[in-house]
Design a protein that fits this description.
The chain has a single domain, classed as Rossmann fold (3-Layer(aba) Sandwich), CATH 3.40.50.150. The termini are far apart. It contains 8 helices and 7 strands. Strands 3-2-1-4-5-7-6 form a 7-stranded mixed β-sheet, with helices on both faces. It is an alpha/beta fold.
Length: about 220
């Protein structure tokens, strides 16, 4: 499915978010607290926008995704970044390799969310950052009403116009299945992260979570919003 939609993915992201997804990616990289020379892994990188933002801060970035179609687009956009095919549930990198690991709008596609977060945590050094940028479901009207109309009706319609109705029916369904901010924080804690906090933006439609891998003798336990 992701190979099929690779050609329209960037356009659809801009249409669905009125171009704001770039701003949210910048905030995700801010939370990762990276600078020149930092080593960053962007998981489920898609067409590479979050990896590109991290690289713009002077970081050494690897973008990983299981969709070769998406990776082809990413490589064309940023030939200087290392993009490689990989499974988020079984990353091939050694423990403590990176200063930060990020995932933007991809965690809800993990077949096993906790395992994917555990792998991201494993490859980040103690004291580094794991950042998750995701769509979340607002709970209060009028935004909850608008969100339901947009994702349940408008997005699938736009998907049909783009030629892949199945993919853009999958999107709202995947958002509904994904845990809310508290539930995601709890899963991050179980995955071995501590000092977890989150920010809601865009009226509560977008959640950015950040946590720090615990050291060997330091269980992940401190969670707050």
């Amino acid at each position: 499915m992701f190979d099929r939609i690779a050609g329209v993915y960037d356009l659809m992201n801009s249409v669905m978010t009125a171009g704001l997804h770039h701003r949210w990616r910048r905030r995700a990289v801010d939370l990762a607290e990276i600078g020149p020379g930092a080593k960053v892994l962007d998981v489920a990188t898609g067409t590479g926008d979050l990896a590109i933002e991290a690289a713009s801060r002077g970081a050494e970035v690897i973008g990983s995704d299981f969709s070769e179609g998406m990776l082809e687009r990413a490589r064309a956009k940023a030939p200087s970044i290392r993009f490689e095919q990989g499974d988020a549930l079984g990353l091939t990198y050694a423990d403590d390799t990176f200063d930060a690991a990020t995932v933007g709008f991809g965690a809800r596609n993990f077949a096993d969310l906790e395992q994917g977060l555990r792998e991201m945590t494993r490859v980040v050094r103690p004291g580094g950052k794991v950042v998750v940028l995701e769509i979340t479901t607002p709970q209060k009207p009028p935004l909850s009403t608008f969100f339901s109309l947009w994702f349940d009706r408008i997005v699938p319609l736009v998907g049909r116009l783009a030629g892949d109705p199945d993919a853009y029916s999958y999107l709202p369904n995947s958002v509904k299945r994904f845990p809310g901010p508290e539930g995601l924080a709890a899963t991050m804690e179980r995955a071995g992260l501590r000092d977890i906090r989150w920010i809601l933006t865009a009226g509560g439609i977008i959640a950015l979570h950040v946590g720090t891998p615990a050291g060997p003798a330091e269980p992940g336990k401190d969670r707050f919003g």
